[in-house]
Amino acid sequence: MKITKVLVAAAFIAVGFLPFQNAYTVDSTQYWMKVRAKDKFERSLIANTGLAIETTREDFVVGVGSLEEKNAIERLGLLEVSFPLTDAMDFPTKDAAFHNYAEMTEKLRTLVTNHSSIAQMSSIGKSVEGRDIWAIRISGNLAQADSLPAAVFMGGHHAREHLSIELPIYYVEYLLTEYAKGNPRVQRLVNSRDIHFIPMVNPDGAEYDISTGSYKSWRKNRTRNNNGTYGVDLNRNYAYGWGGEGASTSPNSETYRGPHAFSEPETQAIKKYVDTHENITILLSFHTYSQLILYPWGHVYESIANAQDKQVHETMAKKMAEWNGYTPQQSSELYIASGDTTDWSYAEHKIISFTFELDPGNSGWGSGGFYPGAGVIPEVQRKNLEPVLYLIEYSDNPYRVLGSGNGPIFKP
Ligand code: 0X9
Ligand code: ZN
């Protein structure tokens, strides 16, 4: 969105003189606001200022309004956070190829609308600030997709890891457009599978990270903690091993685990989605960066007890590493961290689960780190395409990677 200062100059075509200074400025900037409101009376007070309330929660509302409305709300003593919806609230120009929340929503909506016989878009829950968390479901047989083998891919648990959002978006586009073009491999996969993408698990964090037009290096979500700080680390908030090592009890910390497991609406949404799609056998959560393929456990150094499951994770990780060149290893080889997505999905549902730490590597593309620049997007999408197709392929029975006759065949 662009700054919209409207210069209004009355045109006086009087001969010889200009009677007074007749140019004035109207600031038509709109502000995004989070406003404290504990009941209908406070909400009515706020609505009365003119604020367009978009989301109502137990103790706050979110809306958009003018500077005048923002000032009025400030005078009521209820304003918690505000951003001008100006040039900010978007990626720096050089990184415009990344999708912000609105752009992602629009792109996914268009893709699904154009391929509605094989794709659905649904909100799996709302973020703390009331944004929809979108899931895309792709299958050649949507009516009976629950009885097909399923894989789920997610991105954007961590706010500043914007590259992790570009991959799920791209694979949605790839599968839908290749299917339409008649790509036989994609048609076979889509027709026989139930494929899920949740590209932006933490939309509030991602938007906050770009809210000033330069990156904030934000990681967590945007929960207001009890000490007035913001954010829970969503990859420390899942239930399995929650409360263990490698997660902080301090709300100020970057790795704050939250007051209890699944305290956050974002992780609750993922939990509910995974819990209710019992056909999911494979999960991949994209993060950045370090070029790693990680698998459980992450909360202890021991490996998972089931030897066959361990072997499946190792075999798949090694195979995928041949395509993307990343290093396959157990999560806790990186460091111990409790409450992450994949420990939970494996422990709770026996889903074969991976975390990819995407590019760059530690000493990869310069000092890019979390912000490697938009130029890397196509290459990272390309190198991870084969791993994604492979996971979809083997979701009917991941144990097949160990040779025929291994493990439970998928039963709907
Ligand atoms: O710390 C994390 O959540 C992940 N790394 S990141 O830089 N994207 O924040 C790694 C999670 C791997 N899991 C464990 N080590 N348990
Ligand atoms: Zn991460």
What this model shows, in words?
By secondary structure, this protein is α/β, with parallel strands linked by helices. The chain has two domains: 84 residues, Alpha-Beta Plaits, CATH 3.30.70; 310 residues, Zn peptidases (Aminopeptidase, 3-Layer(aba) Sandwich). The protein is built from twelve helices and 14 strands. The strands form three sheets. An eight-stranded mixed sheet has the order 7-8-10-9-11-14-12-13, with helices on both faces. A four-stranded antiparallel sheet has the order 4-5-3-6. Strands 1-2 form a two-stranded antiparallel ribbon. Helix 8 links the parallel strand 12 and strand 13. Helix 3 runs parallel beside helix 4, helix 4 crosses helix 5 and helix 8 runs antiparallel to helix 12. The two termini are 47 Å apart. It binds N~2~-sulfamoyl-L-arginine and zinc ion.
